[in-house]
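Q: What would this complex look like in 3D?
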Amino acid sequence: MNNLNVSIIGAGLAGSLLAIYLARRGMSVDVYEARGDMRKETVAAGRSINLALSDRGIAALREVGMDEYMLAEAVPMYGRMIHSPSGETKLLPYSGRKGEYINSISRGGLNIALMNEAEKYDNVRFHFDERCVGFDCETGTANFSSGKTVTADTVIATDGAGSAVRNAMLHGGVERFDFSQDWLEHGYKELHIPPGTGGSFLIEKNALHIWPRHKFMMIALPNFDGSFTCTLFLAHQVGNPSSSEGVSSPTDVLGRQDTLPNGRVSAEPAFDQLTDASAVLDFFDREFPDAVPLMPTLVEDFFHNPTGNLGTIKCFPWNAGGKALLLGDSAHAVVPFYGQGMNCAFEDVRVLDSLLSEPPAVASGYNLAPAQRNPTDWEAVFIDYGRLRKPNTDAIADMAEENFYEMRDATADPVFQRKRELETKLEQTYPDYFSKYSMVTFREDLPYATARAKGNAQDALLMKICAETPDSSNIELPDVMALIRKQR
Amino acid sequence: MNNLNVSIIGAGLAGSLLAIYLARRGMSVDVYEARGDMRKETVAAGRSINLALSDRGIAALREVGMDEYMLAEAVPMYGRMIHSPSGETKLLPYSGRKGEYINSISRGGLNIALMNEAEKYDNVRFHFDERCVGFDCETGTANFSSGKTVTADTVIATDGAGSAVRNAMLHGGVERFDFSQDWLEHGYKELHIPPGTGGSFLIEKNALHIWPRHKFMMIALPNFDGSFTCTLFLAHQVGNPSSSEGVSSPTDVLGRQDTLPNGRVSAEPAFDQLTDASAVLDFFDREFPDAVPLMPTLVEDFFHNPTGNLGTIKCFPWNAGGKALLLGDSAHAVVPFYGQGMNCAFEDVRVLDSLLSEPPAVASGYNLAPAQRNPTDWEAVFIDYGRLRKPNTDAIADMAEENFYEMRDATADPVFQRKRELETKLEQTYPDYFSKYSMVTFREDLPYATARAKGNAQDALLMKICAETPDSSNIELPDVMALIRKQR
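A: Here is my prediction, written as structure tokens for the whole assembly.
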């Protein structure tokens, strides 16, 4: 594949990892990045500071020998630490088994490591300050704001949720292009807990902290230096008049008879209420009293940091013939509540790479010449990739939205807490028991769609048992496990 | 409201009717149409030749005195005439009551009549060959391909499924703009049955004809001149590799173990198989043998007429502050299978107009100053409009897709046919019985979302009864009606 030239649009996490994978196959790889080189200059991030790296992402790093290097810089998180409004805490482990945990890692540190690794290959070139502003799906020519135009053998767009290549597909480049973008009524804001003296951690180091408050929540992930990055998830607007989530139920067709539910005024807090320091402090003192003393720059951070939006993007097909493929967030941006955005994008890279391998991973009856014999048949590779991957990225997108409601709401619910305790015991007792969370997070051998289907059936069963049995010590594990095995 | 200037983008059915409504309120109205004046030149339509006008559309025409004039040019259709593969026919009436029928009307004739009516007002001006290519959601300035720029008090975009104003909202004009476009794997092609001698109708005049064939179907609507316009609905591609509808169920994450369902080869017919005259004739002779003798230009029409796409577009919010509002297909394009696209757009106009009226049709607790006292508060009007209308346009969009499956599939099913017979008897016996179809089509007083909710509950009950009772003469009407009334 030495004579193949691939353009990658976007040197974020997915694009940088993809460059390594393609370079290892001997392809000539040019990576075009809209921003400057984050290794040389401070680049406005606009993205989360740390991320939860888990098994799907680790598996993709492992294939290029980057897993141990990266985990050495990560902070293991063994469970969710739930903070009640009165400041009590309770740890809900992610798994009852050793070795099943997630890892808080610096986005910037990981991105830089991947770029450095990619640049070890002579056949990889990074081009910074090159923003893709247009793409011709017929000719495969990409246009950059610098005026540069590039036509490679194919283009792989890892240019994120606002992908210029996807916009070209949407607006006439690909016929019958299915597309959706859906925004949550909630936004997010990043805040900060600094390290204690000597780089110590002021709250439990090895946990993902959650302050669940039903209609909103705050979380915190540890950083390697002893600090925590907090994220507040909160509605943008009180009563939310501009969102379709808040749209009224039916009335008379001319609106003459019934009342409009979801009137504009509501008691729920929202970003648009927190307009000055005293409103912010009142809100935090009331809702997160144990966190406030740990956040000396709370008010400054609150007004300095932007309020971000949370959206889900789905589309299909992901390819424009053999000229371009969307991969990662450009194809399927998800909300962050399952901690799988990066892990899913890394799995994308691993799946795509597998299709470039000797006999490609496709079934009989599907007449694709093996890619090694026909390495330039990008369209066939891209179609296979889309068919394999789409049900799984849809599944994680849906689970990520559902997990928002679990995190802000269910983690404070006694039945849910009993269910997590029961699951921990099952995992400690039965090697073949995996919670839905474990299947998604720790089972890189299971596609997301399979994890979702099995996990939903299992969850329904366990919630029923826990709702009916207030004292979980009365639940007979062998009986429960027999029911679960019967579901399979 | 004499000093208000409104720009309408698009002089199609919705835009032309809206111009009349706004002109009656004394507003100054400029209508910008991308194509030429269809009254003076042959304009490439690209849209269906005839449409089913029903009560929601008629109600909107009635308010501007256009209903009787238009119905005089329409052909009443009292039911669905089902054509079996062997050529037998069976009429399924739309209602058991007199006066509940739909009307086949010429799109062009109706559009011309509405433009002529609008032009009777001195305060309405049409501008043809003015294609809107951009819109600034901040300033409200619309740009046209002619180079013209226009800034009115507000813009109402009736520029259809490909709306330029909506694209401006999507790409940065409106924050957190929810948007989706979803394409059916089926396309459509219009065909023709000419009149018989002396303008006679060669098949039943007063019916909507359907040839349901499970995975595809043909329909025919009568024209005033004795001809019929047929539409073939058929998959674009065999096995449909590019659609997400055909995407495989989960496999191993690298695709190594399982087989891909929905392989590329399938026995279903599709447009991509009908590439020459003999393939087209073979297909029609096999599937629609009774229609072929009536279609002397079948092969020419098939290869001359384009194959259209069928998509659903949803978005929200529909307004950019008070600067612009999406209305009709630009806000909610639907598939044609409920015959409600135009009727819904006309209802949009009627609902919007009602909000410009004395005390506006909004509920207590929703602090909007009445529009008459504050006629320039377009943003408040548009927000009310969106909240009232969105649940209903979502409902008709979903019902239109669902009705595709009913028309091509269920109309050939004996249980479904018994259910329609039972419903006809109920409608003949009980003035308060309305089928779901009747609630959608003949009850302009019921919002679409209400019709959908009530209709679905009622359908589930009746299908259960008809499945359990093979001989419908054994069904006791009073017992059934008692069950239905209990549902309310």
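A: To summarize the key features: The first helix of chain A runs from residue 13 to 24. Residues 241-266, 362-373 of chain A have pLDDT under 50 and may be disordered.
Q: Very helpful, thank you.
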